[in-house]
Amino acid sequence: MATDADNTGPPDFIGVGTQRSGTTWWFASLLTHPQIRGPRNGVKEQHFFDRFCRRALRPRDIRRYHRSFPRESGQIGGEWTPRYMFDFWTPRVIARVAPEAKLLVMFRDPIERFRSGVPHRLSRAADAGMPATVADAVERGRYASQLRRLLACHAREKVLILQYERCRDDPAAEYRRTLSFLGVDPDHVADEIERPRGRSQAASRQPLWDHLAAGLRATYEPEVAALAELVPEIDVSLWPNFAYLAGDGPTG
Fold first, then answer.
1. 77-113: b (≥16 Cβ within 10 Å) or e
2. 215-230 mean pLDDT
3. CATH code of 224's domain
4. What is the strand order of the sheet 76-80 is part of?
5. Has residue 235 been placed in a domain?
6. pLDDT tens-digit profile of 61-73?
7. pTM of the predicted model, to two decimals?
8. CB neighbours of residue 200 within 10 Å
9. Could you tell me the pLDDT band of residue 127, with boundaries at 50, 70 and 90?
10. Which range of residues forms the domain containing residue 68?
11. In the structure, what pLDDT confidence band is assigned to residue 192 with cuts at 50, 70 and 90?
12. How is 89-107 classified by DSSP, letter by letter?
């Protein structure tokens, strides 16, 4: 619980992407570390920067955001709002509000992310139109475009790129890598890190009919190829819908 003795200030880290990619699981695992604290209100996703598409950032906004991150000496604080990287204005605002913050990004096979993202949005906004929902879900998977925008405002060494599938397959090693990046004790072992957590949409996912799957693959293939060039550590072979990009050609 926060006390008056806690220090506040700009967050030490901000998770900026991506929706439906295991970020709830990973952030919860980070918070088991005694040197890491979340926001004062206990909410993973602050959505603080969403509003600055409607109005300009003001000094009192910056002070308010900084007060959201209490921590004791030796601790770091942060949040994880997956849409921050998606919104074109947010990287520049973050650079102003928290210029020293380290940024975390979790990517997932964009077609699997799409299949999870559509029912996720419909479950939260029952009146959302299907075309708008699908368009939003498609745009969220344009990872290379979003990452270029992020790196235009933030140094590459300040950004840790994680891959959901790698974290799922080897959570201990990827967790240690995350802790090392954040500058805290990397030997901490998180409770239940072997089991991804979050609100699963598996029961709501529908099979993709042929022309939709082909359209998504054609849309995302240039983005996946560009992402692999930007981030060589991304293992495209772990993405079932794009594993052919790591080999000799399409599988079907």
1. bbbbbbbbbbbeebbbbbeebbeebbbbbbbbbbbbb
2. 97
3. 3.40.50.300
4. 36-37, 76-80, 13-17, 102-107, 159-163
5. yes
6. 999 999 999 999 9
7. 0.90
8. 12
9. low
10. 13-246
11. confident
12. THHHHHHHH-TT-EEEEEE
Q: What is the CA radius of gyration of the chain?
A: 18
Domain-embedded: residue 2: no
H/E segment holding residue 78: strand 76-80
Residue 5: inside a domain, yes or no? no
Residue 23's identity, in one-letter code, is: T
Closest among 220, 230, 231, 224 to 246, alpha carbons compared: 224
Specify the pLDDT at position 126: 62
Give the C-alpha separation, 64 to 46, whole Å: 12
Count: domains in the chain: 1
Cβ burial, residue 6 (10 Å; 0-12/13-18/19+)? middle
Identify whether 6 is part of a domain.
no
Query: Helix 23-30 vs helix 171-182: angle between axes, to the nearest 10 degrees?
Result: 60
What sign does the CA torsion over 46, 51, 52, 53 have? positive
Q: Amino acid letter at 69?
A: F
Mean pLDDT of 3-21: 88
